Amino acid sequence: MSTAPAAQAGARTETNRWVVLVLVCLAQFMVVLDATIVNVALPSIQHDLDFSPANLAWIINSYTLLFGGFLLLGGRAADLFGRKRVFLAGVILFSAASALCALATSQGMLIGFRGLQGLGAALVSPAALSIIMTTFADGAERTKALAAWGAIAASGSAFGLLLGGVLTESLSWEWIFLVNVPIGAAAFFASLRLIPESKGDGARGFDIGGAIAVTGGVVAIVYAIVRAEADGWGSSTTLGFGALGIALLVGFVLIERVHKHPLVRLGIFKVRSLSTANGVMVLAMAGMFAMFFFATIYVQEVLGYSPIKSGFAFLPFTVGIIGGSVAAQQLIPRIGVKAQILSGLVLAGVGLLLMTRITPAGNYLSELFPAVVVLSIGMGMLFVPLTLLATTNVNEHDAGLASGLFNTSQQVGGALGLAILSTFATSRTENQIGDGVQASQALVDGYHLAFLIGAVFMAVGAVAVTLLIRRADTATINADEAAVAMAH
After folding, report:
1. Judging by beta carbons within 10 Å of its beta carbon (0-12, 13-18, 19+), is residue 470 exposed, middle or buried?
2. 465 to each of 210, 326, 341, 354, 422, how far by Cα in Å?
């Protein structure tokens, strides 16, 4: 008599777990969607709010810097205050900030509200992943859940490009932010009822000072780099903010050394594979962010593409990343992690060099398409082995920290790279215009320099991997771990 109710209860529990997965993936879809949906709308935003090329990058940077800077703190908050509670708070903040972005009437308002979006994402993303890890304890089911999580990230990026183009062209750029509101509302109310609360078992320390110091330091340095183009590298503004950024980062190190429960246990950087993987990811994301930023403006401002056509133009990038990731899963057991990373860096570098072939009267199929395909395959081949390299050789109790650091490197690397490359590109363009070069050619010349520097970043990463990664660093990585990393 008792077996039927027990079986029904077990079935409900099983169903609820997969419903929980759907809900957290829906929220993550919203976060990932916002990372690409903005790119296609950048030219429209630039015209409406009169953004300069240098300030336009802050629409991206304010989001990525706050996202990356507070990602570790968001994960710690989820363990301390409750994963469901922090997840819901992040969804509310992200959705509200999205609505405020749509209402922005000035550059400062939009940049500020984008920063709030990034802060909301820093709460949503680690809490959602933590909910998955605690909901699915079984290894096989956890792998399936993480595979779904990874698929959402890939599809969100692709859908963001298309949806951004459709909404911008059919309605207005404000709708790329307003679309988050109903998604966020659905995720919030369903999660409020269906996701159970859970907390971590660790110590109850909360290092908010460390999070503020490291985020403020990186923001100050990025601002100094961006201002250098207009004010000069030796100006008081550039030097002042640069010095402030360095001081804050030094302060972060001091805080982490004395804090009872530091945000980052500094000893983890003694793991050579982790430090190298994070450094290479910073360099790789710097090049990739620059490609998206400059190429999106190029196809609309120079080639005259509509927003919708622009969205379709970059779909091969998403396909290439997925294809590269699948190839990496198959190749790692055969050629090893180090060779796989070097292959990805070489392809990504070649892709960026191919981007220097674009012209004011360019042809998409002969100039841009090959570069996008090669770069995307290279980046796809990088993500899996770098994830393994960053997380495999750390102690079990540092696994969450290692994963968080790697995700932070992606966001901060993109912001730093975009700041550096946009500064050099803008300076090159203005110098060319001053020399009497036609505006469209001057703009393309600036992009050429940015892509070339991005290729140099990839080369530096390849040298670092060649010199620093040894056989012992990759000996424990096997085919099974490659499959798990692919799920991320």
Report:
1. exposed
2. 29, 22, 8, 23, 26
Within 8 A by CB and 6+ apart from 302, the residues are: 360, 362, 440, 443, 444
Amino acid at 222: V
pLDDT tens for 177-196 read 998 899 888 888 887 877 77
DSSP of 110-136, one letter per residue? HHHHHHHHHHHHHHHHHHHHHHHHHH-
Q: 478: phi > 0 → left, psi -120 to 50 → alpha, else beta; which?
A: beta
The predicted-structure confidence for 48-86, as pLDDT tens digits, reads as follows: 888 877 678 788 878 888 887 788 788 778 777 888 888
Q: What is the pLDDT of residues 269-296, one digit of tens each?
A: 887 888 888 899 899 988 888 888 888 8
Half-sphere exposure of 321 (CA within 13 A, CB side): 15
Report yes or no: 151 and 79 within 8 Å, Cβ to Cβ: no
Q: What tokens were used for 235?
A: 């100006």
pTM strictly above 0.90: no
Q: Count of alpha carbons within 13 Å of 427, Cβ hemisphere only? A: 17
Contacts 24+ apart (CB under 8 A), 104-107: 104/49, 105/49, 106/49, 107/49, 107/50, 107/51, 107/55, 107/58
Q: At what angle do helices 208-231 and 236-258 cross, to 10 degrees?
A: 160
pLDDT at 15 over 60: no
Can you tell me which residue has the tokens 């056989």? 471
Listed residue (328, 362, 303) closest to 479, CA to CA: 328
Nearest residue to 277 via CA among 421, 416, 384, 396: 384
Q: Which residue has the tokens 């809900």?
A: 23
